Amino acid sequence: MTSPDHVALPAAVERLRQTGLRVTAPRVAILDALPGGVHCGVDEIARTVRQRLGSLSTQAVYDILRAFTDAGLVRRVELAGSPTRYESRVGDNHHHLVCRSCGRTEDVDCAVGAAPCLEPVMSGGYAVDEAEVTFWGYCPPCRQRRE
Question: What is the C-alpha separation between 134 and 119, in angstroms, rounded?
Answer without folding.
Answer: 16
